[in-house]
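quick one, 209 residues, struct below
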Amino acid sequence: MGKAWVFEGSVDTDVLAPGQYMKFGIEEIARHCMESIEPRFAREVRPGDVVVGPRNFGLGSSREQAPAALRQLGVAAVLAPSFAGLFYRNAVNVGLLLLECADCGSIRPDDQIEVDAAAGLVHNRTQGHQITCRALPAHLRSVIEAGGLLPWLEQRMAKGDIPAQTAPRRSARSPADSTPASPPRSDSGAVPDPMPGSASGSTVDATRG
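---
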């Protein structure tokens, strides 16, 4: 359970990971996350806190550092009516939980929030009610619970689900500090994809059936 940080208007990737700091590592980038719209955020956010955002959260560039900065700061989840498609995919890749919640606008700043990703429920302990969100598919939840795509692949490799020679090697730098590696291919030539059928540039919208 954590405190809600509520943002309105537009929250794009440049707000989350300002371009002038992209030459630095993720720790420095995270120190400037949201500073253009809420200077207190990076200083005062605590592990377990929840970000509540507007429609099309994370629009803009494909920079993986945008969701990685939130995860670096300990954000437990981001709730929004919809997410930019590239941001959604990158968030899964770095292990950041996103939930599409059409009714998240009822959450107020500083409300105490508890998220149940499997059930698709957000419990507002301050207001004493719950919000129904789109439940996260089990295969995406497993990637996020593993800590992101690379740890998920390593776990599958350890179980023998993926041949060792096809799994990506961990870089000495964070995945968010460098260009993402090409996804591994299995012996059959197929690329393991935790988000099959998703369109990288499309918007993920909880208000659509």
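DSSP finds seven helices and nine strands in the chain.
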